[in-house]
Amino acid sequence: MIIFKNDEEITIMKEGGRRLRKVVDQLMPAIKVGMTTNEVNKIATELIKKGGSDLSFNKVKGYNWATCLPINEQVVHTPPSERKLMDGDVLTVDIGLYFQGFHTDYATTIVVGQNKNPEISNFLEIGKKTLEKAISQVVAGNRIGHISKAIEESIYGKGFFILKDLTGHGIGKDLHEDPFIFGYVSKSIEKTMLIKPGLTIAIEIIYSKGTEKITYEENNDWSIKTSDNSLSACFEHTVAVTDKGTLVLT
């Protein structure tokens, strides 16, 4: 069931998104070579709480952290650990914030340290641009399928792969709500949901350099990685549709 939000609820989510971006703006420069992902998560937790907000991801049953921090072939849902960040590691920072009963969700992928490979930089730039293209399709009167089409064309058009088992999602009082936002056209666009004011969604560009397939990491109940160990990345924004237009909340 799609839960449409009223203006008051979207205003709360807008403030939650503003707070989340403030946390992200302080967190990202603090990430350095040699840090553990546990240390990154600790900083994120402190920043969220210091700002008077609450953690989002720890409200998912069994997940006890503020962030998911996949590295290289890891894709999503990787819990923080004692793994140290190496120069040139590709790190996804996926983080949520809970404010006055509503969630917002954001992710970005960066190269840690100074070892910047132009090929990897291009790979990440395509993800950022794809997210912008996807958001441009979030217009009342369009359909969810228009978002999916924009993602599919952009990623496959550059020779990369959508990880098809992973999707964006509705968001609000629950971190994961209906509808699913596929990164590919799964059926006729005309048969996908019509976008209307009150819709709040987290659009995720989840893609890899080598495969569409994922698998769970060995000895980890959460962490998902590419099946061929190829590089992956994720870019995500929380977006709201209103009578006056579309808002990027994060």
Largest sheet: 6 strands, antiparallel
Uncertain spans, ≥5 residues at pLDDT below 50? Answer: none
Q: What portion of residues belong to β-strands?
A: 25-35%
What radius of gyration results from the CA coordinates?
Answer: 17 Å
The CATH architecture would be Alpha-Beta Complex
Q: Could you state the CATH homologous superfamily?
A: Creatinase/methionine aminopeptidase superfamily
- Gross geometry: globular
What is the fold-level CATH name, i.e. the topology?
Answer: Creatine Amidinohydrolase
- Which class of secondary structure composition applies to the elements? alpha+beta
Helix content: 25-40%
**Overall tally of structural domains:** 1
| Overall residue-averaged pLDDT value | 97
| Top-tier CATH class | Alpha Beta
| Termini gap | 24 Å
Beta strands, count: 13
Helix and strand sequence: HHEEEEEHHEEEEEEEE
The number of helical runs is 4
